[in-house]
């Protein structure tokens, strides 16, 4: 919303200063904490040096996202979610953050590796070659090393573009890299990342890409994962989950997620230019009122606004230019063992179990093309918690035992398998690695399923809204067996491994072998 605010717009150690009069603050967003220093001023300086001064909204986003944790000296936020209307300047902000990382952060934290992921590998390649590189080329303070040269960039301000197939990147003289990857579950497989960016996240149907890049950031100091997009449609399950969790995180002072949403309220008059002026951050900068009026007129006459997949007519206009969810992803089914409506109501993106209550389960689908580790436990408020702890995609199946051992030892708990689980194919390997393995009894497993179902019905269960868990709930089926209705792997229409692993973990309650911190060595974003 357009208003004057006080923001800390300088670099580390800067003092507060009045925000520009034309700053449009996010309608829903993590507020700037003036008690924390920020790298935001450095981001603004980088933008000016490459000839792309930040608009007020971009500077505000940088100021908040790059706040410094006073206890560690690193970045406070681990995850940054930004949703803005199209043509608002996302590309400029992303590139500025990349350059800041690859040059200035390299001084403070060592060489950086950044990854850009778009709707497709082709679009990421186009962005690198046709937008990122030309901007760097025009920057007077940077020097390009020719592509056909064998020389490597050596000075801090030097960079070199490489467009070799499947290895496209920009190398910097600081030893940092800006690379691209396709949006697949093995994105950045084998890499160690400092700043992965998932751009136009509305195109992602699940969180497998995020799982892949998050795993690659776990060992890096001051790493951040960015999810940036204009709103999506009925297929945008991943982005809808991030928005739901982000809106809740924006209200929580201690959250390590930075959420910034610029959008026109659903109940506002979307045809009113005065409304646009209050909520659209790039209006008067990259977009004019006349431009939007022309687009609106075209939309009302049935014009098809299909650029970048934003749909047609009024719905396309509202989604693309006002950042409004016209078609929110709907829960499927509703007749399974777990009500999808009730499940959605119990989402809490910051939910986490206490260390002493947490138990660990593992399962795999029948084809064993992936493995899911889930956790169960109690929150500090006594409510039950269930979540995916680690998702292992096909390319990483060779590391299943290593990952399972890391999790079991880190949490100080046995690894629980559902009865006759396909994941038992790895049982002997886990045992040889010294992992305490438990195949839960059938009766205990069914009882755990009933406990989960009842806690959901009673409203005493919370989960993090992870898309793969949501899919499992939506596709879950049961079979009648006497007086019970146990879950059926064969009858379900989705990969139910997240839920089966959760039930196995819950069945293992009371078997804790240690009270060591569950998050001592591992990124809590997976829990």
Walk me through the topology.
Layout: E1 6-7, E2 17-18, E3 28-29, H1 40-49, H2 56-65, E4 79-83, H3 90-109, E5 113-117, H4 121-138, E6 143-144, E7 158-162, E8 169-172, E9 177-181, E10 195-199, H5 208-217, E11 225-229, H6 237-249, E12 257-261, H7 273-279, H8 289-300, H9 313-322, H10 340-345, E13 359-363, E14 371-378, E15 384-392, H11 400-411, E16 415-417, H12 427-432, E17 437-439, H13 442-458, E18 461-462, H14 467-475, E19 477-478, E20 487-488, H15 497-507
Parallel strand pairs: 4-11, 4-12, 5-9, 5-10, 6-7, 10-11, 13-16, 15-18, 16-17
Antiparallel strand pairs: 1-2, 3-12, 7-8, 8-9, 13-14, 14-15, 19-20
Q: How many E strands?
A: 20
Name the CATH architecture of the largest domain. Answer: 3-Layer(aba) Sandwich
Q: Structural class from helices and strands?
A: alpha/beta
* Radius of gyration based on Cα positions: 24 Å
Any key phrases for this structure?
527 residues, alpha/beta, Rossmann fold, Nucleotidyltransferase, domain 5, 2 domains, 10-stranded mixed β-sheet, 6-stranded mixed β-sheet, globular, P-loop_NTPase, Terminase
Describe the structure.
With 527 residues, this protein is an alpha/beta fold. The chain folds into two domains: 28-261, P-loop containing nucleotide triphosphate hydrolases (Rossmann fold); 340-512, Nucleotidyltransferase, domain 5. 32% of the residues lie in helices and 15% in strands. The chain has 15 helices and 20 strands. The chain has helices spanning 40-49, 56-65, 90-109, 121-138, 208-217, 237-249, 273-279, 289-300, 313-322, 340-345, 400-411, 427-432, 442-458, 467-475, 497-507; strands at 6-7, 17-18, 28-29, 79-83, 113-117, 143-144, 158-162, 169-172, 177-181, 195-199, 225-229, 257-261, 359-363, 371-378, 384-392, 415-417, 437-439, 461-462, 477-478, 487-488. The strands form four sheets. The chain has a ten-stranded mixed beta sheet with strand order 3-12-4-11-10-5-9-8-7-6, sandwiched between helices. A six-stranded mixed beta sheet has the order 17-16-13-14-15-18. The relative contact order is 0.10. This is Terminase. Pfam families: Terminase_6N (PF03237).
């Amino acid at each position: 919303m357009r208003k004057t605010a006080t923001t800390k717009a300088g670099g580390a150690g800067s003092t507060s200063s009045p925000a520009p009069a034309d700053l449009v603050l996010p309608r829903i967003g993590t507020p700037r904490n003036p008690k924390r220093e920020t790298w935001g001023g450095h981001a603004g300086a980088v933008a000016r040096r490459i000839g792309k001064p930040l608009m007020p909204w971009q500077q505000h986003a940088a100021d908040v996202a790059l706040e410094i944790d006073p206890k560690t000296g690193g970045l406070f936020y681990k995850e940054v979610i930004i949703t803005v209307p199209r043509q608002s300047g996302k590309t400029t902000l992303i590139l500025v953050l990349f350059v800041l990382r690859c040059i200035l952060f390299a001084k403070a934290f060592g060489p950086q590796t950044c990854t850009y992921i778009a709707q497709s590998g082709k679009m990421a390649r186009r962005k690198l070659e046709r937008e990122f590189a030309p901007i760097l080329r025009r920057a007077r303070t940077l020097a390009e090393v020719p592509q056909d040269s064998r020389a490597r960039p050596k000075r801090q301000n030097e960079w070199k573009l490489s467009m070799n197939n499947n290895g496209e990147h920009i190398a910097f003289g600081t030893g940092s890299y800006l690379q691209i990857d396709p949006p697949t579950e093995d994105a950045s497989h084998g890499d160690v990342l400092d700043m992965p960016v998932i751009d136009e996240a509305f195109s992602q149907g699940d969180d497998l890409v995020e799982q892949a890049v998050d795993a690659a950031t776990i060992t890096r100091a001051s790493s951040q994962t960015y999810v940036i997009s204009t709103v999506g449609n009925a297929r945008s399950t991943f982005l809808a989950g991030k928005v739901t969790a982000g809106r809740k995180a924006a209200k929580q002072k201690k959250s390590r997620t930075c959420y910034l949403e610029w959008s026109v309220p659903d109940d506002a008059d979307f045809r009113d230019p005065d409304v646009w002026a209050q909520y659209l951050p790039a209006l008067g900068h990259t977009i004019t009122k006349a431009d939007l009026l022309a687009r609106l007129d075209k939309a009302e006459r049935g014009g098809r606004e299909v650029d970048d997949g934003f749909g047609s007519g009024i719905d396309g206009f509202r989604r693309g230019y006002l950042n409004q969810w016209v078609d929110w992803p709907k829960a499927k089914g509703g007749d399974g063992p777990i009500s999808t409506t009730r499940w959605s109501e119990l989402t809490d993106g910051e939910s986490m179990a206490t260390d002493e209550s947490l138990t660990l389960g593992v399962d795999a689908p029948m084809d064993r093309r992936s493995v899911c580790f889930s956790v169960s436990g109690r929150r500090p408020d006594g409510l039950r918690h269930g979540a995916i702890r680690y998702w292992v995609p096909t390319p990483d199946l060779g590391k299943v035992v290593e990952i399972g051992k890391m999790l079991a030892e880190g949490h100080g708990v046995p690894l629980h398998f559902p009865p006759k689980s396909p994941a038992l194919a790895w049982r002997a390997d886990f045992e040889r690695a010294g992992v305490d393995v438990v195949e839960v009894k059938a009766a205990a497993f069914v009882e755990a399923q009933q406990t989960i179902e009842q806690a959901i019905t009673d409203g005493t269960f919370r989960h993090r809204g992870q898309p793969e868990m949501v899919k499992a709930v939506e596709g879950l089926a049961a079979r009648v067996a006497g007086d019970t209705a146990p879950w059926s792997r064969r009858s379900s229409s989705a990969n139910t491994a997240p839920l089966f692993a959760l039930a196995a973990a819950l069945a293992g309650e009371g078997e804790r072998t240690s009270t060591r911190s569950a998050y001592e060595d591992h990124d809590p974003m997976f829990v």
